[in-house]
Amino acid sequence: MMNVAGWSMLALLLLCKQVLASVSCVWDADCEAGLNFERNVKCVEGKCQNPFFTGGCLYNMLEGWDKLRVCHSDDPPDAEEKGYCRKSPMDYMEVRIHSQNWESAF
Question: What is the SS3 assignment for 87?
Answer without folding.
Answer: coil
